[in-house]
Structures are given as C-alpha cells and as structure tokens.
Specification:
Blueprint lengths: L30 E6 L3 E6 L4 E5 H6 L7 E2 L4 E2 L11 E7 L5 E6 L3 E5 L1 H6 L28 E3 L15 H13 L1 E5 L7 H7 L13 E3 L15 E4 L11 E9 L2 E2 L2 E5 H11 L1 H9 L2 E6 L4 E6 L2 E3 L5 E4 L16 H15 L6 E3 L6 E5 L3 E5 L2 E2 L6 E8 L1 H21 L1
Parallel strand pairs: 9-10
Antiparallel strand pairs: 1-2, 2-3, 4-5, 6-7, 7-8, 10-21, 11-24, 12-22, 13-21, 13-24, 14-23, 15-20, 15-22, 16-17, 18-19
Helix pairs in contact: 3-8, 5-6, 5-7, 6-7
The structure holds N-oxalylglycine and zinc ion.
C-alpha cells in the first residue's frame, strides 16, 4: 500500500502505459492513494474522489498484448480461459502516476493509465450509458430559426478524420442536443452533398438512391417529389431500422412557397404523455403498419409510433401519416389505436411545436430522422423558378463516431501543446 501523496507527479505522457483503445486520456487529476484486496482496487484521487474497480474488470481491460491485439486494439483475452477468477496480489502507484497491478492466478503484472482509469470510473458514474450529448427538447414557438452555423469556405479546406474541426464539432453537438442544425454558405454544385456528408460518414443508400433529388418530377415515386405540401413526418419508417439522420441540401429555391416546417417529435410525444397518458401508452404499444410500395420495391414494417429506451427516455418516433399501411392489430386495439393516433395528429397541428424557415441555396439541414418531424408547404412552379434539394441519409452511429473522433483530436491537441 502506498502512502497518500499530495505532490504533483512529474511525467511525460509518452511514459504512461498504453490504453486498450486509440484515444488520448489527459491526466487532469492524479492518484493520491492506492489500496487493494483480492477482488477490489480502491483509488483515492488528489481531489478526494474515491473510485473502486473490480479485479475481474481490471484484468479484462488491461492493454497488454495478451489482452488486446496491438494491431487492432480488439480484445483477444477470453476471461473464461483463465485458470481461476482474476484477483489482485499487489497494487502500487508508480512515480509517473500509473497504477501497476499483479494478478493471480497468472502472476501477471500489468500497468494502467491514470487518465483512462479516471475516465472509466464506473463506481462514480450515475448513468453508465449516457448519450454523448444530452438531448434538449424544444418548442418551435420559442425559436426564430434552427441553430445555424456559417460554413462558408469550410468545404474548401482539406479535412482529415484525425484533425480538429470546431465547426463540425459544434454542428454535431448541436445535432445531438436539438436533433437539428443548419449550415449555411455551402457549395451548390449538384452532388456536392456526397462530399459534405462524408465529412461525417458514409451515406446510407436506399431505393431512392444514395443521394435523392427533392423536386417536382414528372413521374414521382414519392409525394416529396411533387409540389404538394407534406405533413410532419419522418422518412422511411417503413424500414426495420429507420435512418437515424437526414441531410437536406438546398441547391435552388426561388419558387413561391415551399417553406420548411420542423418540430421536435420528442416534444410532441412528451406533450401527449402529459395530456393524454392513455393515448401515449397506446402509441408505445400498438404496432402500426408502415408501407412504401412502388412499381419496383415493397417495403413494409410494423412498429410502435413512439419508442422509449431502457432508461424510459425517448428514443424514436415513427410518425408519417402518408406512409401508414392498413393497421393489423388485435381487434380490441383498433379503436383505442385510432383515438390515440388522432390525439397525436391534433397535437401536430398546434403552433407551439412548429419551427418554420425557408431554404436558401447553400443551406443544409442535418436532422435526427428518428426524432424530428419535417414538413413543407406546397410550392408553385407554375409562375417560374425552381426548388431543388438534394438529400441523403446517415446513421446516428456515424455522427457519434465522428464526434468522438473530433473530441479525441481535441484531446490530442491539448496533450501535445
Ligand atoms: C423529403 C421531404 C422536404 C422538403 O424529401 O422526404 O420531406 O422540404 N422533403 O421538400
Ligand atoms: Zn421527408
């Protein structure tokens, strides 16, 4: 056991042990004291925090090459192949701030990075699988426009995934917070959306293409490709895994009408839960049919309209009246389901939720397609002009990975400065 130390430790980050990942872990607080018994390590940090770690957890999260493949940093250790439950026979604090542990039954000595241990302090984490950025529910009536960033010149700069990028970082943080962010001043060349989207991650192709053109077309295969108004909806609820993000990039817009209307589907769901709890419960339970059939494809999926995650937080809404197929539900659920649906539809028309704005060429919105509802006013092409958006889908996973990479790049920059 080591005596508590209040002295600031001298270290070179490069001296610290490897971690089982590719990330950078600044040591903001040093370890003051290390204690252990066979099953548990207890660290006291210089700021007084006490963190406990189980021996089995520590053993599997070691970073040596019996535990992770150094080429991939993926685990190669199978805990069940050890001769016995991993326990601690020794624990000591190194002069560089690392913790070195000896494990039985292997009699293996492994060192741990203090910044990594602090960042993975499950003993003091109130929520263990918290979202990267906490969503904040909003009401359109409280805002004039979506959170907007000026992206003029942004696409002219070279971009590498290892680089810091304050604009993209802010965009993604806003996206996770509000479910919606607008970038302005982007290029307006047709197809440039592909490169823009790839700054986050690869677009998800669908039967509408990997980029789709939203404009009035002669032989439309979607109401979106006409000039009629679209009610608040999510896209592709007809898929088992509804796309997480949608990007809409304005190339041309000089027609009359065609304003965008967006609302936070989680705000609508929260209002339904508060005002009509029985209808809310019905919409989290009954499986609606979502159908998108065309001459060449036939997508059908059944799911509830509102989905909660394991913590009871909103995870997804599937609201798209024009993409609902025939309800196929237990006989006694039919009337309650329609009553709940209509209560929800009435809420969608209430002005408190909607945020209205217009697109200028070079604008692009990124929104969470499993949270935000988007709609548009009808537009009139008979008096000339055109309205042309290009769109694509990405997954939330891509945006989360990209944001983690941006945070990693920022931490690395801090460490090397
Ligand atoms: C769509 C859509 C909105 C718009 O293409 O799915 O909803 O503003 N478009 O045209
Ligand atoms: Zn749509």
């Amino acid at each position: 056991m080591n005596a508590p130390s209040t002295a600031r430790l001298e270290r070179d980050a490069a001296d610290l042990p490897a971690t089982p990942d590719y990330d950078a872990w600044p040591v903001d607080v040093d370890i003051a004291d290390v204690r252990h018994d066979r099953h548990q390590l207890t660290l006291t940090w210089q700021d007084g925090r006490i963190s406990r770690y189980h021996s089995v957890w520590l053993r599997e999260n070691a970073a040596d090459d019996t535990t992770v493949n150094p080429a991939t940093r993926e685990r190669i250790l199978d805990l069940s192949c050890l001769a016995d439950w991993p326990t601690l026979t020794d624990a000591r604090l190194e002069t560089n701030g690392a913790v070195t542990l000896t494990f039985a039954p292997e009699n293996r000595t492994l060192s741990f990075h203090p910044g990594w241990l602090r960042a993975h302090d499950y003993d003091n984490s109130p929520v263990h699988d918290a979202p990267l950025v906490a969503p904040q529910i909003w009401h359109g009536a409280d805002r004039q426009e979506p959170a907007t960033l000026d992206a003029a010149g942004w696409m002219d700069k070279e971009s590498d995934v290892a680089d810091v990028d304050p604009l993209l970082e802010q965009a993604l943080e806003t996206l996770f917070r509000d479910g919606l962010v607008r970038l302005r001043g982007l290029p307006t060349q047709p197809g440039s959306l592909d490169n823009i989207a790839r700054r986050i991650g690869p677009p998800r192709p669908t039967n509408f293409g990997h980029l789709f053109d939203v404009r009035a077309k002669p032989d439309p295969d979607s109401n979106a490709y006409t000039s009629i108004a679209l009610p608040p909806h999510v896209d592709l609820p007809t898929r088992e895994y509804q796309p997480g993000l949608q990007l809409l990039h304005c190339l041309e817009n000089d027609t009359v009408g065609g304003d965008a209307v967006m609302m936070d589907g989680f705000a609508v769901a929260a209002a339904l839960r508060e005002r009509h709890p029985t209808h809310f419960a019905t919409l989290t339970r009954v499986h609606w049919c979502y159908a998108n059939t065309s001459r060449t494809s036939d997508h059908v999926w059944f799911d509830p309209m509102i989905k909660l995650d394991a913590n009871g937080d909103f995870n997804e809404v599937r609201i798209a009246d024009f993409l609902r197929g025939p309800l196929m539900a237990p006989f006694d659920d039919i009337e309650p389901a329609y009553a709940a649906l209509m209560a929800l539809q009435r809420l969608l028309r209430e002005p408190e939720f909607a945020l209205r704005f217009s697109y200028a060429p070079g604008d692009m919105v990124i929104f969470d397609n499993r949270r935000l509802l988007h709609a548009r006013d009808a537009f009139d092409v008979s008096q000339g002009g055109s309205r042309w958006l290009q769109g694509c889908y990405l997954e939330r996973d891509e945006a989360r990975s990209r944001l983690r990479m941006l945070w990693r790049a920022k931490r690395r920059a801090t460490l090397s400065s």
